[in-house]
Amino acid sequence: MVKIAPLASWNNYPKQICTLHRPERYRQFSPDVESAIARGLGRSYGDAALNEGGQVFLSERLNRILVFDPVRGVLRAEAGVSLDEILRLIVPRGWFLPVSPGTRFVSLGGAVASDVHGKNHHCDGSFGAYVSAIQLALPGAGWVDCSPTANPEIFWATVGGMGLTGFIGEVELQLRPIASAYVRAQHHAASNLDGLFDLFADPDRDAPYTVAWIDCLSSGNKLGRGVLMTGHHAALQELPIGVRSRPYDLPAVKALSVPVNLPGWALNPLSVSLFNEAYFAAQARKRAPFIADLRSFFYPLDNIHHWNRIYGAGGFVQYQFVIPEPGASAALRELLKRIASSRHASFLAVLKRMGPAGSGMLSFPMLGYTLALDLSLRDPDLFKLLDELDELVIEHGGRVYLAKDARLSAASFRKMYPRYGEWLAVKNRLDPDHQVTSSMARRLQLGSAA
Ligand SMILES: Cc1cc2nc3c(=O)[nH]c(=O)nc-3n(C[C@H](O)[C@H](O)[C@H](O)COP(=O)(O)OP(=O)(O)OC[C@H]3O[C@@H](n4cnc5c(N)ncnc54)[C@H](O)[C@@H]3O)c2cc1C
């Protein structure tokens, strides 16, 4: 199939005309054209999986699971297989993903190319740390196998490399054993940012999975109030008696759906602050630990299909940055003050703790804290605010996440990603004519001098 069509990713911005190919076999997945990029399930926010005026190779038909060893927990699959399909196979057999983003509707190739992180980054690192091998198509050079030991520089330029080293065909992944399909979770409310950081730092509340929701519209002595959510995979004895005999069965859930794009006025500072008030009060009441199934703990938004439509047809952006330790709490306070005073209403604001950086040359995570905000594009001065936030992020030694980016400048990118020169040397060796390219690569001038 070849089709010329407008294409956008999850946040519906930007929308660009691309030539779409949908190969049936990954051997047809060839970057031997002038300008091509691979695309998974389009769950990135921005232009990483777009190629305006060029070719986009969809990997949705390349979704075969090739090997699953239920004894060692090793899986090899084509890159277009979704994490959802993997979970359906592995959870009933006692395995889980080693690292999982906040949606299961991403492809294996997309998870590697963005080196995604989950709620356990502070304990376990990012996705690439569990990938034992990749098969990669290079322009004009066929296929190459790479791993942390074979062609390691190609491997670590590809993990987090946003699809720009070539097309990932197959991925081998080490899974995590679990005793049940449930998590023992607990919520802890904090009335301001200091309280939230105290909760993150409290060893009694430390858990393999932690994430906090923040009310970005609160200010004054409530600035940064939020709810820390913690959890660990539930052992059999922690499950309710009725569930213990079938610990890997997930309860049926009725998914909701947003049927159409909502009108622009639906999300505004008033509606978001009313939601935040009600949400904070409800969560603050839930003090006791509770048992949640994997899907509702890890992927709460997946139960609302097309939730991106609440931002209307014009779309939105997600701004996700990380600030390194030490100094993260003071820097976050400064950034939150700036965001709260701008009255840009972020319906979703998520704070996570991160552990040390992995080996991916362009990977996002670093030791510190990361905040992600969804922001409507209807606000005319939004990009001006985000440019100011970029300056603060750079000043504090942090960076913006490329998988969530649609508007960063090339100059800011270079200040945020100090290993770009190293990555560029591998890119130039693999793809000297820069045939593998995307709209993001052109915007950030990925390929030009470091
Ligand atoms: C609701 C939601 C929650 C999210 N939560 C998180 C989170 O907690 N943590 C996190 O890290 N991310 C998160 N993300 C972002 C998401 O995990 C990443 O953007 C991921 O890369 C999307 O995968 P995809 O298959 O949709 O890839 P796409 O969006 O299609 O592409 C993303 C990048 O991967 C490249 N790519 C895709 N397939 C291949 C391939 N076969 N070969 C080479 N390159 C390829 C593309 O070229 C592009 O650069 C979230 C996204 C959503 C919508």
TrEMBL record:
InterPro entries assigned: ALO_C, FAD-bd_PCMH, FAD-bd_PCMH-like_sf, FAD-bd_PCMH_sub2, FAD-linked_Oxase-like_C, FAD_lactone_oxidase-like, Oxid_FAD_bind_N
SUPFAM superfamilies: FAD-binding/transporter-associated domain-like (SSF56176), FAD-linked oxidases, C-terminal domain (SSF55103)
The keyword Flavoprotein is annotated on this UniProt entry: yes
Keywords from the UniProt entry: FAD, Flavoprotein, Oxidoreductase
GO annotations of cellular component type: membrane
GO molecular function, one term: FAD binding
Gene3D superfamilies listed in its UniProt record: 3.30.465.10
Domain FAD-binding PCMH-type: 10-178
Name of the protein described by the UniProt record: FAD-binding oxidoreductase
Source organism (scientific name): Candidatus Accumulibacter affinis
